[in-house]
UniProtKB/TrEMBL annotation:
Pfam family name, one: DUF952
InterPro entries, per the entry: DUF952
Species in which this protein is naturally found: Planobispora takensis
SUPFAM superfamilies reported for this sequence: ADP-ribosylation (SSF56399)
Superkingdom of the organism of origin: Bacteria
Protein known as: DUF952 domain-containing protein
Amino acid sequence: MHLALSADWDRARAAGEYRISTLGRTLEQEGFIHACADHVQLAGVVRRYYRDVTEPLTLLTVDPEGLDVRLEVPPGAAEAFPHIYGPIPVSAVLSATPFTLPPP
C-alpha cells in the first residue's frame, strides 16, 4: 500500500500511471516508490512523515503482480519496506480510499 496526496493520485489517473515516490519526491528523484507492507508499517510512516500534512490523502492498495517490488531495509530502519521500482499503472491499483490522519 502507498499513501498518496489525493491531487497526485488524480493526476496519475489522468496520466495512466503513478510516479510519486513520497511527499515532494518523484520516482525519478528517489529511484523507487515507497510503500508499506501492512497497516502497522503504515501507522509508523504516518506518525513519522505525515503528521503535518494538511492536503487530502488517498490510500492506494496496489497489486504487486507484474511490478518490480523489493523488500529492502532503508538506512536507519529496523524493518524491511516494499520499494516499487518503476511507475505504478493505474490498472494495478486495487483500491483508492480517502485517508484521514489520526488525531495527534
